[in-house]
Design brief:
The structure is a single chain. The chain is mainly α and about 190 residues long. The protein has one domain: Vanadium-containing Chloroperoxidase, domain 1, CATH 1.20.144. It contains 7 helices and no strands. Helix 2 crosses helix 6, helix 4 runs antiparallel to helix 5 and helix 4 packs across helix 7. It is elongated.
Length: about 190
C-alpha cells in the first residue's frame, strides 16, 4: 500500500508540472493566501446576512478549532509518518517546491481543515452549488499539497476523512442544540 502511495505521489507530483501550475499551487497551498480573501468574504457575508453570517462564521471557527488540533496534536503523533519531502525520506524524482520539511505527514491538516469546512457549509446550506464549490475548493487545496511535494495522496485521503467527520460532527452538534433549545440568537 505504501509503495502504491509513493507511485501515486510521483504521478500526481509530476502530472501537471509546469511553471504556471508551480506558481499557482505554491500560492494556493500557502495559508497566508487565504487570509485576506477570507476576511473580505466574511465582511461581505456579515454585511448582507448579519446575524446568520455571524453564526456561520462562528461554526466555521469552531470547526477549524477542532479539526486542526485533532489532526496535529492527536492523529499525526500516533502515525508519525514522515513527509515525502523529509530529508531522511526524500523520494527520488519527487518535486519539492516548498523545500524540505521534517514535520509529520499523515493526515494532512490542510485537507482536514478544508474538507471540514466543506462538510459544514454543505450541510448548513444544502445547496448543490454551495456543495460543489466548497468541495472543489477543498479538493484543489488538498491536491496542491501533493503537487508541491509535502504530502502523499493517502495523507490527503486521511485528512479528508477526518475533516468530513469533524465538519459533520460540528453540524450535528449545532442541529442538536437547535432542535432541543432553539435559541433565537443561533438561528441561520
Amino acid at each position: 500500500m505504501l509503495q502504491f502511495d509513493t507511485q501515486l505521489f510521483l504521478f500526481l507530483n509530476h502530472a501537471l508540472a509546469n511553471p504556471v501550475c508551480d506558481a499557482i499551487f505554491v500560492h494556493l497551498t500557502n495559508g497566508r493566501f487565504w487570509i485576506l480573501p477570507g476576511i473580505a468574504a466574511a465582511l461581505v457575508f456579515i454585511f448582507f446576512q448579519r446575524r446568520s453570517a455571524v453564526v456561520v462564521i462562528a461554526l466555521a471557527l469552531v470547526t477549524v478549532s477542532v479539526s486542526d488540533p485533532v489532526c496535529n496534536r492527536i492523529v499525526k503523533p500516533i502515525f508519525h509518518r514522515q513527509r515525502p519531502c523529509n530529508e531522511q525520506v526524500t523520494i527520488p524524482g519527487g518535486r519539492f517546491l516548498l523545500g524540505h520539511k521534517s514535520s509529520d505527514s499523515f493526515p494532512s491538516s490542510h485537507a482536514a481543515n478544508m474538507f471540514a469546512q466543506a462538510a459544514l457549509l454543505s450541510l448548513l446550506y444544502r445547496r448543490r452549488r454551495m456543495t460543489i464549490i466548497t468541495f472543489l475548493f477543498a479538493a484543489t487545496i488538498a491536491f496542491s499539497r501533493v503537487y508541491v511535494g509535502v504530502h502523499y495522496p493517502l495523507d490527503i485521503v486521511g485528512g479528508a476523512i477526518l475533516g468530513l467527520a469533524v465538519g459533520a460532527g460540528v453540524y450535528w452538534s449545532y442541529a442538536f442544540v437547535m432542535k432541543k433549545w432553539n435559541p433565537p440568537a443561533l438561528r441561520i
